[in-house]
Design brief:
alpha+beta
Length: 396
């Protein structure tokens, strides 16, 4: 097997029919038998098939000869330009990585050590595709711990959105914890994150905050800075620090609807990989804001809006940046072998304009390439857990 990874997707109430349809597509793509030369399978199932996931995995293993599989189960999956939301469906893709260039990991199987090397001297634990069970405690800490086990600086993946106890796949069907595949330095992966929102002003330095409370930015009351970024007039109220457009204190609904806060440190804002959390409260008398998470790790913020136009523009930005890197550093999109896309289940529906609109936009930007993925309950990129994000990873 060479060139693009063979891949397939199908929907049918009978999993045997879906699996057979997928294998027929794989066989046509590989031209030399289903899975010929493949060593690793990526598999995403909707949770309509969760109870049968072990049977599906055994069937695919027998029919393809591929021993190692990684994947996840969710309410929705993606493949090509299609979304399958809350209907029985599966998507799979087969890779022909050298056996020494990947290792499946889970609670029952350790990843290679950070200093481990492949037989050709490359670092064995360079990057990782990670799937998680949403019921796992302390997920953000576990994701950071996972990154610390790698010699590289890239973790990508997502949290299962399955409504069934079966949530992830790592050579067997699992519940709980983290699992996935660790890839060596020989496997080139380029990734980007899209957060379906756009900044409405410049990046600001946090000068005073406590817990969820954001008090001052650039030395000024945080609410005043937000209103300035939103283009609202400032008028002093009857109390010190009370700010109101048109002389009236803004209501919570006015201030919160569609407004988010991007948080990060260092140069995260240059690459669009800062975390976005909702604005959940306003104290007009103190000029403070309440954010939907602790602020202890962030030292800069940017205010954002999330709507259809912002979501489309940010996804185009992420795809454009990824394509530019591939063309400048790796010789062009013809080098792409396959891709995975992990998007938030909350981004489906009308955010991008209708059913499958998100996947169609990715296709418009990147062209026709093998692409499967999951609609997740949280997205993983680098060392962070995101919400309402899309993580795109391309294998070269």
């Amino acid at each position: 097997m060479s060139g693009q990874f063979p891949w397939a997707h199908a929907t049918h109430p009978d999993w045997r029919m879906s699996a057979s349809l997928c294998l027929a597509q794989i066989e046509r793509a590989s031209r030399s038998g289903a899975g010929a030369g493949a060593t690793l399978g990526f598999l995403y199932l909707t949770d309509h098939h969760a109870a049968e996931a072990a049977e599906i995995l055994a069937f695919l293993r027998e029919r393809t000869g591929v021993t190692h599989w990684t994947g996840a189960i969710g309410v929705g999956i993606a493949a090509g330009m299609a979304e399958y939301i809350d209907e029985p469906a599966m998507a799979l893709m087969l890779a022909d990585f050298a056996p020494d260039d990947f290792r499946i990991f889970s609670g029952a199987a350790r990843p290679p050590g950070r200093e481990a090397r492949t037989p050709d001297g490359r670092r064995a634990a360079w990057t990782a595709l990670v799937h998680a069970d949403a019921a796992t405690p302390d997920l953000p800490d576990l994701i950071q711990d996972m990154l610390g086990k790698l010699a590289g600086a890239a973790v990508f993946g997502g949290v299962s959105s399955s409504r069934h106890p079966q949530t992830t796949i790592a050579d067997r069907v699992l519940s709980g914890g983290l699992s996935g595949v660790v890839l060596s330095e020989n496997v080139t992966v380029v990734s980007r994150v899209s957060q379906s929102c756009q900044p409405i002003g410049p990046v600001h330095r946090i000068t005073e905050s406590t817990g969820h409370r954001l008090s001052r930015l650039d030395g000024a009351p945080a609410l005043e800075v937000l209103m300035r970024d939103m283009g609202l007039p400032l008028e002093a109220g009857p109390h010190r620090g009370a700010y109101a457009p048109g002389g009236q204190i803004p209501t919570a609904v006015q201030m919160l609807q569609g407004t988010f806060v991007g948080m990060g440190t260092g140069d995260a804002f240059m690459h669009g990989d800062y975390q976005v959390r909702p604005l959940i409260g306003v104290d007009p008398h103190e000029g403070a804001l309440a954010i939907g998470t602790e602020l202890e790790a962030a030292d800069h913020v940017v205010f954002c809006r999330r709507d259809r136009g912002a979501a489309q523009a940010d996804l185009v930005r992420a795809c454009t940046a990824l394509r530019a890197q591939i063309e400048s550093e790796y010789g062009g999109m013809h080098r792409v072998r396959g891709a995975l896309y992990i998007s938030c289940l909350g981004r489906t529906g009308t955010l991008f304009g209708g059913p499958s609109a998100e996947m169609q936009l990715v296709h418009e930007q990147l062209g026709d390439l093998p692409l499967i993925g999951l609609y997740a309950n949280g997205e993983i990129f680098k060392d962070r857990l995101y919400w309402y994000a899309g993580v795109l990873a391309v294998f070269l």
